[in-house]
């Protein structure tokens, strides 16, 4: 006997005890009796919840089994409660009131499945308008339920009112599909069911249309992209509600009783799904329900979103552990995303079959295309599909030919064709290395060249969310307008009359999504299936790896076609004139294909590219270029954001690696699209500026200029031009001479002429007025930062105190340069942003900053205690769940004159203050700092020297520095995460079962 059946029988035996306990109560004191009765019911409901939870958490029940058992036990509980309510009220002998009422479960409870903290939805059904006695009986029952603390959703309607509401509101009609009799006059239930299914309004076509529109609006609200790293299990795309939508469409069509499984055996017998597809549907349904149960139990409430703090806990409870380099939470989330994709694939399979049952697709007049028909295809409902007799099983190349025809004609694939592609996607593996297949794939990948694209279709602005693959449309000769026409009442939110939706087929991203969601891409490209659904457990990467790559390819296409020309002008110019277009697109496709393996993904991806590129028809030269780009795709971003690009050795090392201007151009484009595709908030003007400056300097060297032998010449030129401009502005020769002699060579090479002039004004005025401290703020909107310049007496710990003061006003440092002048003064420059990654322009904050820096330098305030009191370091539970192990790395080879210290730790206000204070205490001079954040992880890089101006090479000294910094980071990490981590995590774990059940099988 099945475990859930055993549990159900055991609990029904307990209900006998409940009835006996109720019967034994003393009824002489009504008030005392009521309180005792409520306690009896409360205890029994607690026993129900506890029994389900213990058996579920010990892996004796799956998610679906637990949901069904919960609903069954609640059924019996409510029926006992209704009996008691009627028996112990004045309505006990009022047969008319009882005969006029039928109580039903609706919604999820009506489907016979109930989550731990979900509402219990009830319908009190009457034949006519309820009498006063019937209303009182309903109210009396509800009062008992409310007193028990049970969350009830209820409505009271007559049969006619239900029919009228169902005709007006799809939500009501949907809930009535799941109507299930619980108590009262069952004849009313039978009468309603008969009337409901014989009513003609709304029709099946109306219902399909409304459910599709409802789903689209829900996806927009909860995240249209199913690969967001914090998905909504219930409402998000690929979640439980999408599965329920398929069930509703089937149930509305076949008028069957609630199924024993997720979609019922009817879908197989009617040919909507194969037996294997139905098995995958049940597996997906069960997995999502299991995740939902764990979420509810961990949160202690009806939580439906898999947030960062929930993911490791739920994954651990479900048995996911570390495997190689991949931690358990990443394995769990990959299974989740693969399940979400499976739900979307089921949608593409089931919906066309349902609609085919409702109407017969017809070709449209005026759309005859002899060339299309000769190729084996036809136009149906404005979309392209294969002709009758064409089999993707025996002729898989037709799948790609179909996509090729649709792309050239700017038409979508008919849903029934998508259905067949999904069913036969495994046959695409036979096309690896096929010359025609490779050519078609490259065309789909790259899209038309910029000149063709601009002449072929109008400019297109992409909507704020990625539009889903369009669902089926009813034939134009149908008596119903479908898709919704402009006069449709819900037209404003419909995807089907959105011009952007109609034009999406002109973009390469649309075809890549089709290839990926159908599974064809994973069969064509070796290694691609490994990254489908692959996520990284951090707050920097907000998409799975496959979705990130497709977004990067979409951005590259936009760069070429001028849609991002204002935002990234240099990348646009380079992309539209690229001489290696195919290699660039394939490099973007493959740049992260090795993520999730034990080996460095850049190195392994480069090796995989050597195998994949020839299969795609690329030449030896193109293959070498792709492999090199994949190997070095992080080189420019690492250098621009974590190294001093004013250091000559940094630039020369880059030149030695890149070697050619064409490679530099391709690498720059790849870097831009990679960063922009990570996260909408990652790309900003400051990063754009750093990358552009780095590109220009490397390009200049590759063109034969700016050699290190010209360093002295460049310093002399900078001084001469500055002197001339200062003279024109009326500065005296004495002041000019003094300023020119203050800066060392590194200073003159670090700033442009405009900045030199500004510094001259600051320094000369400060020297004339004997000012011990000068602070100036300069807004640089083109760079997306505010530049803070500080001129004061140099001393140990200066950088640390200034960074602490900046933390107190909520300023985030993105870069810094520290220059000690020949007169012993320090000229420190900080580039800062606010929390929104924009320039710090708040006048009040800048005034407060001046005061705080003054107080910090004079030691009138304790920076550390002020930061602690301000609470700026507080971090929410979601962010604290991300593990950020502190790490300190030294590099003495990247610079000829400095030791580079790279510090990795959790990003928080005050981090830079703590780290720089630890460095200063070791007698180390900081020359420059470069700060980069990746979600909650910060990478701070410092160029340093010892007190004698030399690099630090002694291994014992370096190890001591490392331990001092790590001690600071470890202490701060423990303080930041206290109150949430281990104790909270352990409290959410279930009691370990006697035998551990392995995770569910991951869908292929």
TrEMBL record:
Give residue ranges for domain HD: 545-661
* Catalysis: reaction(s): [protein-PII]-L-tyrosine + UTP = [protein-PII]-uridylyl-L-tyrosine + diphosphate; [protein-PII]-uridylyl-L-tyrosine + H2O = [protein-PII]-L-tyrosine + UMP + H(+)
Q: How is its activity regulated?
A: Uridylyltransferase (UTase) activity is inhibited by glutamine, while glutamine activates uridylyl-removing (UR) activity.
Entry EC no(s):
2.7.7.59, 3.1.4.-
Named cofactor requirement(s): Mg(2+)
User: Which domain of life, per UniProt?
Assistant: Bacteria
The UniProt record lists the keyword Nucleotidyltransferase: yes
Q: Where is this region: Uridylyltransferase?
A: 1-372
Q: Where in the sequence does UniProt note compositional bias of the Pro residues kind?
A: 990-1004
Chain segments carrying region Disordered: 452-499, 977-1004
Composition bias (Polar residues) maps to 488-497
Free-text note regarding domains = Has four distinct domains: an N-terminal nucleotidyltransferase (NT) domain responsible for UTase activity, a central HD domain that encodes UR activity, and two C-terminal ACT domains that seem to have a role in glutamine sensing.
Entry similarity comment: Belongs to the GlnD family.
Role noted for this protein: Modifies, by uridylylation and deuridylylation, the PII regulatory proteins (GlnB and homologs), in response to the nitrogen status of the cell that GlnD senses through the glutamine level. Under low glutamine levels, catalyzes the conversion of the PII proteins and UTP to PII-UMP and PPi, while under higher glutamine levels, GlnD hydrolyzes PII-UMP to PII and UMP (deuridylylation). Thus, controls uridylylation state and activity of the PII proteins, and plays an important role in the regulation of nitrogen metabolism.
The molecule here is called Bifunctional uridylyltransferase/uridylyl-removing enzyme
**Primary gene name:** glnD
